[in-house]
Amino acid sequence: MKRHLVFPVVIFMAVLFFGGGMPTLQGYEGPLPEKEIASYSNVVFTLENLQQVEKGMTQEQVLELLGVPKKIKEEKRRHDRWTVHYFYPDGHVVNFKDGLVVGKK
After folding, report:
1. Structural domain tally of the chain?
2. Domain with 53 in it
């Protein structure tokens, strides 16, 4: 590779690695609005569906499986990052960070 191309290629690779590798930060505008969440009110929560929830799923994917949670707790973090907790019956909780599932109980 010619010497004058090395620097731009290194910068391009760094952008892909650090910026392009974190889709949770790109285009995430915060928790879903209540009106959008309410559109999933016909879905019924089941333990079988809770078992299908996996890390990396979106809020919409969880709502499609579990329906509207009993309670939602939203926390805005530094640098426009969000943590959201969906509380379901019997103490079950699905935790999101920047729009994607990071855990469940």
Report:
1. 1
2. 29-104
Amino acid sitting at position 51: Q
Query: Residue 19's pLDDT band (boundaries 50, 70, 90)?
Result: very low
pLDDT of amino acid 77: 78
Q: What CATH number should be reported for the domain holding residue 57?
A: 3.30.1450.10
What are the pLDDT digits (tens) for 59-103?
999 999 999 999 999 988 777 778 999 999 999 999 999 899 999
Per-residue buried b or exposed e for 60-99, using 16+ beta carbons within 10 Å of the residue's own CB: eebbebbbbbeebeeeeeeeeebebbbebeeebebbbbbb
The answer as to whether 87 is a domain residue is: yes
pTM: 0.71
Domain assignment of residue 33, yes or no:
yes
